[in-house]
Amino acid sequence: MSSAGHGRAPAGVLRRTSSGGPLRIGVLVSATGANLRTLLGMSRDEPASYQVSLVVSHGSGSPALQVAREHGVEAWPGDFDAHCGRASQARDDAARAAYRRRARQWHDRLDQRILAWESAHGPLDLIVLAYHRWIEGDLLTRYQGRMINQHPGDLSILDTHHRRVLTGNDPVREAIARGHPTTRTSCFLVDASHDGGAVLCQGPPLSTAGRKPTAEDAREHELAQKRVSDRPCLEWTVRAFASGSLALDDRTHPDGSRVVRVDGKATPLGGMRLGLVSDRN
């Protein structure tokens, strides 16, 4: 998910904050840790270039926390639901507003904890979300332009009103239900919108042939998409961020998101679109 905070990153090159050494990455996790494993693999294979420095979860039961610990990375469990409740339980405007206040307070406290950690251990250059809670407030503001999210839907598909079609919690099932021939993962810059930030990269497409819009088929398809589309999408984006290849233009696409430049060249909505491995050789 993306955030519901304030402001978009200003135009210009998306830059790291530390000088020299590996790109220092913080990861916010919720589930099994597939994207975390991708980042840990980059850190293992190229330790001079990438370092997963901190892992944080909104809950205590995410398997990704154990993945981090097994790799010697500091990992923090959370108590978000105990403090905030669940968004699905907020059934009217007043309850939803109260939930958002509690969620912002929780993430503001997390931001203060990370800030204290950075004072002792050095700054984080990039925050990667594999995270099932909306973020707003100080955490979003401080990492503006340095927080990215992996989303299992093609965010370049718009409706007749120029709104993104495949946002929210179940984009794979929605794509299958709509009869889309393929799905793909989008990596986007988290901003004030809900899944509306500038799309930096899209992973290779995966055919939906033979799939039905059932929960089981959607789940199986998304697992396959993690292998085919998630990993190359995330790897490319992190490498491009580390090299300083990514920039935001002053111009916007029809959906209101910023045009992304890669090595100075403007890209269409969807950013860098990766093909299958065989297509890139």
Automatic annotation (TrEMBL):
SUPFAM superfamilies: Formyltransferase. Keywords: Purine biosynthesis, Transferase. Residues 24-203 form the Formyl transferase N-terminal domain. It holds the Pfam family Formyl_trans_N. Signal peptide: none annotated. It is an enzyme of class 2 (transferase). Pathway: Purine metabolism; IMP biosynthesis via de novo pathway; N(2)-formyl-N(1)-(5-phospho-D-ribosyl)glycinamide from N(1)-(5-phospho-D-ribosyl)glycinamide (10-formyl THF route): step 1/1. It comes from the Bacteria. Its EC number is 2.1.2.2. InterPro entries: Formyl_transf_N (IPR002376), Formyl_transf_N_sf (IPR036477). This is phosphoribosylglycinamide formyltransferase 1. It comes from Streptomyces hygroscopicus.
